[in-house]
TrEMBL record:
<dbReference type="GO" id="GO:0016297">
    <property type="term" value="F:fatty acyl-[ACP] hydrolase activity"/>
</dbReference>
<dbReference type="InterPro" id="IPR001031">
    <property type="entry name" value="Thioesterase"/>
</dbReference>
<feature type="domain" description="Thioesterase">
    <location>
        <begin position="26"/>
        <end position="253"/>
    </location>
</feature>
<keyword id="KW-0378">Hydrolase</keyword>
<keyword id="KW-0443">Lipid metabolism</keyword>
<keyword id="KW-0444">Lipid biosynthesis</keyword>
<dbReference type="InterPro" id="IPR029058">
    <property type="entry name" value="AB_hydrolase_fold"/>
</dbReference>
<dbReference type="Pfam" id="PF00975">
    <property type="entry name" value="Thioesterase"/>
</dbReference>
<comment type="similarity">
    <text>Belongs to the thioesterase family.</text>
</comment>
<dbReference type="GO" id="GO:0051792">
    <property type="term" value="P:medium-chain fatty acid biosynthetic process"/>
</dbReference>
<protein>
    <recommendedName>
        <fullName>S-acyl fatty acid synthase thioesterase, medium chain</fullName>
        <ecNumber>3.1.2.14</ecNumber>
    </recommendedName>
</protein>
<dbReference type="InterPro" id="IPR012223">
    <property type="entry name" value="TEII"/>
</dbReference>
<keyword id="KW-0275">Fatty acid biosynthesis</keyword>
<keyword id="KW-0276">Fatty acid metabolism</keyword>
């Protein structure tokens, strides 16, 4: 029964389009606010046999549409950790998160380190502020209840985060606005205060950003690891990572970083 329960839990939370049981390392991807797994899960086809790609599916969307949205960041971090713990203990893993996903990946990594002494071999952060920076505090103070659905959709459209086929479907637009709003609510519950000399990680951290995106407060990521921190700017806006040329750069660069982690 237990085995069956866990595989169901796993199936609910994780999408893996290209299983590679013999891979040396797993790359776990965390999508952006309002987003699902369709784009990042496809990365599984782009990596070599040494890396297996898993994409996290948050509650309230896709096959988890009937589930209530997550209440806070802690519940997401707990769920990901509980479901994936066996896999994370079994072989090395790296995290990639974009925007909202970068904060979720950090929260999960923090929880794993504090509770189990586990950490990724590399943390890849995309389109996100450092979680203890001024930029992040500004995101946390956005008054969610005051934002209209139309404003959310206009914002997402401006960022390039809505497939055009969804724009003309009112139900889809409503659902996207709701999902985005709920993800922002989760983000605002995330508390991280860096205290003094405390450095949570020892893995390398790489930060990616779109050259036309707003400037993210990324330098402070350096304070969160004793490993190396690198910064890359790729052509494009907030969703630069969906351009095939950037996708190709990202997958090659991530592969190189993971291979250099000396697994």
């Amino acid at each position: 029964f237990l085995v069956c329960f866990f595989s169901q839990e796993m199936e609910k939370l994780i999408v893996c389009v290209h299983e590679r049981p013999d891979a040396l390392c797993r790359l776990i991807c965390f999508p952006w606010a309002g987003g699902g797994t369709s784009q990042l899960a496809q990365w599984g086809k782009l990596f070599s046999d040494s890396i297996e790609v898993l994409c996290v599916r948050f509650p309230g969307r896709e096959t988890r549409f009937m589930e209530p949205f997550a209440k806070d960041m802690t519940s997401i971090a707990n769920e990901v950790t509980n479901v994936l713990l066996k896999e994370l203990k079994e072989k090395p893993f790296a995290f990639f998160g974009h925007s909202f996903g970068s904060y979720v990946s950090f929260a999960v990594a923090l929880h794993l380190k504090e509770k189990y002494g586990l950490e990724p071999v590399h943390l890849f952060i995309s389109g996100g502020h450092a979680p203890h920076s001024e930029g992040f505090l500004a995101v946390k103070s956005v008054p969610i209840s005051g934002i209209k659905d139309e404003e959310i959709i206009a914002h997402l459209q401006m960022l390039g985060g809505i497939p055009s086929k969804l724009l003309h479907n009112e139900d889809m637009r409503k659902q996207m606005a709701l999902t985005f709003r709920e993800d922002l609510r989760v983000l605002q519950t995330f508390l991280f205060e860096k205290t003094g000399m405390d450095i949570p990680f020892s893995c390398d951290i790489t930060c990616f950003n779109g050259s036309d995106d707003k400037v993210h407060d990324v330098q402070a990521w350096q304070e969160l690891t004793s490993g190396d921190t690198s910064f890359y700017e790729l052509p494009g806006g907030h969703f630069y990572l969906l351009k095939p040329s950037n996708e190709s750069f990202l997958t090659k660069h991530i592969t190189r970083c993971i291979e250099n982690a000396g697994l």
